Amino acid sequence: MSLALHNTRCVFKRELQGYFATPVAYVFLVIYLILAGVFTWYLGGLYEQDQADLTPFFSFQPWLFLALIPALAMRLWAEERHSGTIELLLTLPISPGQAVLGKFLAAWLFVGVALALTVGEWITVAWLGGPDHGVIATSYLGTLLLAGAFLAIGACLSALTRNQVVAFVLSISIGFLFILSGYPAVLEFAEAVLPEFLVGAVQQMSFLTHFNGMVRGVIDARDVVFFLSLIGVFLYANTVIIDSKKAD
Amino acid sequence: MAQKRHALKLPMIEIQQLTKVFDTRPAVDQVTFTVRPGEVLGFLGPNGAGKSTTMKMLTGFLPPTSGGARICGHEVTEDPIAAQRCIGYLPEGAPLYPDMTPASLLQFVSQARSMERAHARQRTDEVVALVGIESVMKQRIDTLSKGFKRRVGLAAAILHDPQVLILDEPTDGLDPNQKEEVRKLIRSMAQDKVIVLSTHILEEVEAVCTRAIIISEGRVLFDGTPAELRARSTTHGAVALHLAGTQADAASKALNGLAEVERVEVLAGDPDEDLVRLRAYGAGEAPLLQPITDLARNKNWDVRHLSVERGSLDEVFRTITTQTGAQK
To answer: What kind of architecture, by CATH, is found in domain B2-86+162-230?
Structure first.
């Protein structure tokens, strides 16, 4: 195993242990599962729609993640700065890039676990009728990618401050922009003030544009590439921030 | 063999013109020194003198504004990872992950340092016994006392048996017994290693260090042995003399009559006691004790106390660190 991989895995393991050593993990899982259920069954009206699919469940995921993932990501670096442990971590022979990746992957896996626990909804619709399992599978993939994008943004912004509340508010705001940029109202406004090619760019940056495609059951390489490169860009920025601003 | 011994004595820390400027204020100002194996370097200075900043630059945590440092031959700014492999570091305040246990923290550190599993287990056992944290290995770190936390931090720093050990205030916040334990530990590790520790306890420098550097406002103001530091004291080598049943004036006049004595100071005594306390300062390097004992015998003085003063480190420290302010 290469050293870089070993170091990343080492940070990854410590982070993952950290989630379950504190109430963070359990609170997050419980709240997420309750809210996902509420959104799907009450607000989404899965029962009333008379159709065996999970569209109500998935259509609320971006909004759920918008609030919950910044809460998960805010501590990633802000807490290290606040408690001073960043000095312990970054004076070990581990590069900032490895630390950034290890932390991100642990958080992503954790959200993946939370997502996997919603499999009950899938089983339920499968029992109620004959859903298109292919669509549900691509929807889960899209949701996981969406979570990764929110996490990468949150981790990067968390590196900017030692204050977790600041990190939380920043992440929600930036995440909100990435969701909003696909909305017709926003696009109409953009069309009015921006040249045409920029309007397209704004639309292309929207999480919803790329997410909705996958929820419909279409895996377009462009959507996958969009989310993965967005994750890459924010993790790179995260590394640059940590590397250039280790102290303070 | 001879070659190996020579290689071992190569400097493990070489600092060249190391400078760190925060905004416009230089926190560390062109600091240059080298440290060789076997040396225990005490880093002294008032709060905010630049001790921690220097250490943060040595460990690759803070980039220097200019200048550089080589640890075991590795330039810290160019190859921080290689330098960090040679270093064991206890940051100021010993920050540790509060939700971990000492056992899981040491395991994390051993993995981060790519230690072989068997070796890691053996070293963990050794280090845990050395710093005495066996009883708390399964307790969450945030429930531990300050002394235990500091020792866990120390254990993490020495786990991989580093060639260079950098300890930022290792005994801060410990009780006197714990302080002595940590000092003993540092002394026991001193051979073949380079240890740099910062402190503001002057006695600590004498107790554990072979060399002292005083830094103030980012600049090195003294670099020498603790004994040399003490020798700078104005009272160093002076003779203290307590006499009963003698007049202070007469006694000090008699002492002043000696060629070796430059001046005599009459010290305030306990008013309930009928004692005259005097301190005689030497004129040069000539020993004072012999002529003074001879004089006391001739005068038939009732000598209750006679000693050669070692000098006060506090006084030297104050003189050295306040001089810079006066120069400006």
So the answer is: 3-Layer(aba) Sandwich (3.40)
